[in-house]
Amino acid sequence: MDTPGLQDTLAVLAGALGSGLLMGIERERRKGQGPTRALAGVRSFTLAALAGATAALLGSELLMAVGAVFIALLGVVAYARDRSDDPGVTTEIALLLAYLIGVLCTRSLPVAAGLAVAVTSLLAAREALHQFARDWLRPGEVRGGLILAALALLALPLVPHRPLWGEALDPQVLLRLVLVLLLIQALAHLGRRLMDARHASALSALASGFISSTATIASLGMAVRAGRESARPQGGAAVLSCVATMAQILVVAATVQPLWLPRLWAPALAGGAVALAWGGLLLRHAPRAAPAAQPEADGAELFKLRDALWIAALLTAVQVLVQALRAWWGEAGLLAGALLAALADVHAATAAIVAQGRPQDAAGAGLADALAVALAVHAVSKCVAALASGGWRYALAAGGGVLLHTAAFVAVLRW
Q1: Cα 46 from Cα 124, distance rounded (Å)
Q2: What is the pTM of this model?
């Protein structure tokens, strides 16, 4: 190791001093008094961080290892002698981490300082984290989080990334689609819980749109037909759910063919902005929604894995269909497959179209036209769903916004 100069040495020691003080002050406030007080406070944490920095500056790996073992043994002895009703090892682990942060100050001072801030924030958020884990999270949400983490961290790196037929049937892309759908469901679920607490029907409709905008439009329309809600505010909420459609187009494109993002972000932004403006205008004078009933604690699932697998299978099947039609009929087959897909789900159509090539390819212009036509067909299907579920007044309120925001998307895409 190169011998640091005086200025570098002082900077390392100052970083270790500040990190130790930061962590130590937080622990001192929770240390307690008398025989049941915790192991370490502000002085112990500061000295531990300075000890780590000093050992590292001396350049002796043996000395650094001895110091770490000494701090660890202190923690073991303190835990063994703890006579409190609720013993824990947080302070002991944090003290060892303070020593290691002191060592890290000699390698990267910004990383060490950032880690000290992150650790102190984690220590200070004890009550909030305990309440979140014990009271706020529901068992179904914990199970869902574990499944999501297992798929993302374990399964995804092991799945091969190679199309099995043309540009379709890539196992890793299929798994990424499943993960994206699960993540969207999870965010919508958590968003709905927070939004229901604030009685925000418009934001709840927006969150529901991440699951299915068409289903959201139909559900809101049925409330209008049943006489429970008026057509104008329900139509505004329905159009707000289309903002999620614009966001999901970008998500699907980023998952299937990221090179389409520079071509699609501006149309999606324009379409989302128009939908947001139309929905906000109709909802401006709407009354606050009544609080929604909370689901049973044990039955609240973060997402529905079966639904995500079904949708991913549908997206993949549509890609295969479009690939086959394009192989048989060329660009006419591509357009026919996109239109068939758009009748049911615009995300399936988007995935099928962008999977066929890149925007800078020779077929890029034809793919963009196919996507524009698919969006138009899907907008018409949403208007039909609005008319069938909520009547003509609701269809005017919701359908006008749907057609307008789709026109904005297509106009910017073709520009």
Answers
A1: 17
A2: 0.50
Higher-confidence residue of 358 and 35: namely 358
* CB burial string 260-283: b at 16+ within 10 A, e below: beebbbebbbbbbebbbebbeebb
End-to-end CA distance of the chain: 59
Identify the bridge partners of residue 165 per DSSP, sorted by sequence position.
168
Tell me the three state secondary structure of residue 32: coil
Distance in angstroms (rounded) separating the CA atoms of residues 246 and 239: 11
Instruction: State which amino acid sits at residue 376.
Output: A
How wide is the angle at C-alpha 258 spanned by C-alphas 257 and 263, nearest 5°?
A: 100
Closest among 172, 117, 183 to 149, alpha carbons compared: 183
What are 33's two structure tokens? 């008094």
Residues in the chain, total:
415
Residue 293: DSSP 8-state:
P
Instruction: State the angle between helix axes of 305-329 and 346-354 in degrees (0 to 180), rounded to the nearest 10.
Output: 50
Cα 198 → chain centroid: 21
The phi, psi pair for 106, rounded to 5°, reads -80, -20
- CA 221 from chain center: how many Å? 29
Read off φ and ψ for residue 115, nearest 5 degrees. Answer: -65, -40
The SS3 of residue 258 is helix
Cβ neighbourhood burial of 350 (10 Å; 0-12, 13-18, 19+): buried
pLDDT digits (tens, 9 = 90+) for 209-268: 666 677 677 777 877 877 767 788 888 888 888 888 888 888 888 877 788 888 888 988
Query: For 292-351, what is each residue's pLDDT tens digit?
Result: 444 444 445 666 666 666 656 655 665 566 666 656 666 555 566 666 666 656 766 777
The answer for residues whose C-beta is within 8 angstroms of residue 78's C-beta and 6 or more apart is: 38, 39, 91, 92
- How far apart CA 78 and CA 36 sit, in angstroms, is 11
